[in-house]
């Protein structure tokens, strides 16, 4: 009996789609599930997700940590965990390397990423092929006066977990990285790319996302009828699987992607791209020593700030916000 069991038939189906002639234009939508193997917890996984881990902070709602209306007056929890989520400390996964391989083979038309970790670009996907729909950590500014804040001071704030404030003495607003928080608008380019790139897709590849966050969640629904939609995720997501031609491969992204690349005969090339990307990220040394785990950072923060009293008004505001969010009526990242 072979020690390499044959991959599930849906992996073979995906391989057949990728081998098509003429070569297909792939539009990908990716989410937190492609980075969990890089030690970045996703939001919603029941035990391992960030929302579950935040319990010691006794936030009014787990989402509050990324809610602009909460952050404005209570930025400490966000900065307490920032060090564990800072892209510089992270290495791309095999799935990120696969996206770079697709780009190298001229199959990757465009990626919409909901992730803010920048690992697609670190893995070698050209920046021109990526829209970071929820922004990233490359820049930061005062939330109040919008003045840009220096990179080196921000790096220090992230490494120490201290909240950075505007350098303008007359302002002293809290500084926020240019990631899109709940309640904020997405970059203007989102709609432009949705209108131009999505209609050109021959395959829609959806990797590691629960498809619960609007408006990215609408992208797979908006793709032309007849375009195969491929989902690789631990669980089913959105309506993928309901249309003819949909392919669903449930499992760990990296495992499914490895099986797929073996089927395609690309495994060696993929591994060498991955190793190169890891080596490039491996050079960074944290000048504040060994990075504490996320659980440790959360415990330290809980001790430092204690549970924050929540006013009735604030609770009501958040409840209304979450109701709107789940009704999908808010603009921007909700
Ligand atoms: P989510 O709602 O937490 O869903 C993640 C999905 O991935 C879930 O369906 C999981 O079952 C699945 N999943 C987790 N691990 C794996 C794995 N190894 N293989 C396959 N599937 C897996 O996150 P979404 O991305 O759907 O939601 C969008 C949010 C999450 C955006 O606002 C992001 O900014 C935010 N986020 C980003 C990061 C990051 O930048 N790495 C991390 C956590 C959350």
In brief:
The chain is of the alpha/beta class. The chain is 37% helix and 12% strand.
List the SSEs and their pairings.
Layout: H1 9-18, E1 26-30, H2 50-53, H3 68-71, H4 76-85, H5 94-104, E2 108-113, H6 119-123, E3 130-132, E4 135-142, H7 151-160, E5 175-179, H8 189-196, E6 203-207, H9 219-222, E7 229-233, E8 247-250, H10 253-264, H11 267-282, H12 294-305, H13 312-327
Helix pairs in contact: 1-10, 4-7, 4-12, 5-11
The protein binds carba-nicotinamide-adenine-dinucleotide (CNA).
Structure description:
- The chain has 334 residues and is of the alpha/beta class.
- It has a domain of 185 residues: TPP-binding domain (Rossmann fold).
- Helix content is 37%, strand content 12%.
- The chain is built from 13 helices and eight strands.
- A six-stranded parallel sheet has the order 3-2-1-6-7-8, with helices on both faces. A two-stranded antiparallel ribbon has the order 4-5.
- Helix 6 links the parallel strand 2 and strand 3.
- It is globular.
- The N terminus and C terminus are likely disordered.
- The site of carba-nicotinamide-adenine-dinucleotide has 29 residues, from loops.
**What Rg, in angstroms, do the CA atoms define?**
20 Å
- Tell me the series of helices and strands, N- to C-terminal: HEHHHHEHEEHEHEHEEHHHH
Strand order of the largest sheet: 3-2-1-6-7-8
User: Which percent range describes the beta-strand content?
Assistant: 5-15%
Helix/strand/pairing category:
alpha/beta
Which CATH architecture of one domain would you pick? Answer: 3-Layer(aba) Sandwich
Oligomer: single chain
The low-confidence runs, each spanning 5 or more residues with pLDDT under 50, are 1-6, 329-334
What name does CATH use for the topology of one domain?
A: Rossmann fold
